[in-house]
Amino acid sequence: MSDLEELTQALARNLRHWRGERGFTLDALAARAGVSRGMIIQIEQARTNPSVGTTVKLADALGVSITTLLDHDRTPQVHVVLPGQGVRMWSTEAGSGASMLLGDDRRGPVEMWAYRLEPGESTVSDPHPAGTFEMLHVTAGELTLVVADERYAVPAGGAVSFEADRAHAYRNEGPAPMEMTLAVSIPPVGAP
Are residues 111 and 66 in contact, defined by beta-carbon separation less than 8 angstroms? Predict the structure, then answer.
């Protein structure tokens, strides 16, 4: 089985589990996540590999991290992720991409990501649930962060934090690749 097939199977199994754990019907989860009922059925039956945006919406609606939906083993107190072992969530032919490095749900979902954006490329994020907080550290190039139509330049070595319950985007408007590490803290979701 390929890595993508394993990921699709894990997502199907875990989405069914967490939907049941939260007591959500298909319709309730669809409404909370803003994802169609049909898409959720396809995912739960491992018939599709959803976009990162869809996966984020489902994780947010369930109050779990993407890592939990992708079935990462979080049992040890120390979890080492070696270079290249993060879960590649998206990429472009030009070389941009994002990998989920770590995630945990024990104190509310927390995720750590590695991003790379090639010159002229960008990625947009829908608003996360109220109370979601992001922190990032730019390690190469310069990031143009856009939060609710406000632009912020963050050079290599710089860091930024912001409330992520508004639409936001990461852009590389410079001449060199931009790399950053991003942490996302999502407040726990109670049962409906």
Answer: yes
Let me know how many helices (H) and strands (E) the chain has, helices first: 5, 10
Distance, in Å, from the CA atom of 179 to the CA atom of 186, rounded to the nearest integer, reads: 23
What is the per-residue pLDDT across 27-61, written as a single tens digit (0 to 9) for each? 999 999 999 999 999 999 989 888 888 998 999 89
**Coil, strand or helix: which one is 123?**
strand
H or E stretch including 22?
helix 3-22
Q: Which residues pair with 68 in a beta bridge?
A: none
pLDDT tens profile 154-189 = 999 999 999 999 999 999 999 999 999 999 988 876
Angle of helix 26-33 relative to helix 52-62, nearest 10 degrees? 110
Q: Roughly how many angstroms between the first and final C-alpha of the chain, as a whole number?
A: 37
Q: Give the bridge partners for 90, in sequence order.
A: 98
On whether the CB atoms of residues 112 and 103 are closer than 8 A, the answer is: yes
